[in-house]
Amino acid sequence: MQVIPHITNEIKSRIVKAQKYFKTDFQIIEIGGTIGDIESLPFIEAIRQFKAEAGIGNAINIHCTLLPYLQTSGELKTKPSQHSVITLRSYGLQPEILVCRTAKPIPKTEKDKIALFCSVAKEAVIECKDMKSIYEVPLALEEQNFAQVVLKLLQTEDKKAELTEWKNLVERINNTKKTIKIAIAGKYTKLSDAYISVVEAVKHAGYANNVKTEIKWINSEECTDLEKCRELLKDISGVIVPGGFGVRGIEGKLNVIKYVRENNIPFLGICLGMQCAVSEFARNVAKLKNANSTEFDEGTPYPVVDLMLEQKNVKGYGGTMRLGAYDCNIKKGTKAYEAYGTTKISERHRHRYEVNTDYIDLLKKDGLVFSGMSPDGMLSEIIEIPSLDWFVACQFHPEFKSRPERPHPLFMGLIKSSIKAKQA
User: Model pTM?
Assistant: First the structure.
């Protein structure tokens, strides 16, 4: 554990940098996992030190615990929560607030018991009951004065939360009748959490358009030809090809993209999805046989996707990527402009490979529109095919900026087109 001092100092440094970047006195830091896991120890120690340095009233610990419900005896068990707090204390942290995950309402007697044996105030034992929708949870927490307890501990003025818009969102979610099916074609489909941000962004856009969105997972490795794609995609209204790394499943993604392009099925490509869309268009429309990304075929005769110039001599991944927020200029009269309603945007990236600028003019001649470019005009950010209802792909990750009450414009465009496709 000799690495812990270095790691904790780095974590604390990043916390301070984040506070300066967001220009706020408040910072919410989540440590995932389960208390007792060895992987989280450096983070727990960093928080202990940070809280000690911040001082009383400037930092608090909110601990999320589990209250299992035993069906056979009809009771909630508080011991797991008590032992979780004991473990947390052994690391030098005493939580001020407990948020208790539960399937059943917590009786007052049990709340008092938890407060007594975990050394927190009675009003700081917060019930977090399973809800029909995750978006109902903030409303339930507000009813229990959760924010009021937090602000009081931080010696900060309490303000009445304006939740009208959020309540309207929950109302739409709970009363939506129509459903559309969106396919996500990737290679990590057995672990759906790998695409959790994409799934949530789809839901956000669905809520805004008063439809429920059902996800159909498509393993791209199974998309061996167009006939297989036809079988797998026969009941869907829109398709997303998300990001990823590695050659496995790539040809299947290319087959999916070819099928949706030829059949005018609404499509959104994200990061690697855009690179695959460029490769597919180059092969089958621009007739550049075996066009590919050098990530998958270093000997391709037409490297339409290649490493950034500054990455040519870099080995491996990690900090060598184009990572973080970058500006993008959007061309007027395009679907991207229609979606965003502006010519200037900023989006978050995480990748190393880019569309090869040597092929842009050639692809343009065959009908591919580069509707979003970096301010210097060198990096392709958004492509589209204007003759199709919605065939748009982006090099960045729009799902990172989507919010329940502010769906991302590109996901909105996909869902709107998918609704029209289902009605046609």
Answer: 0.86
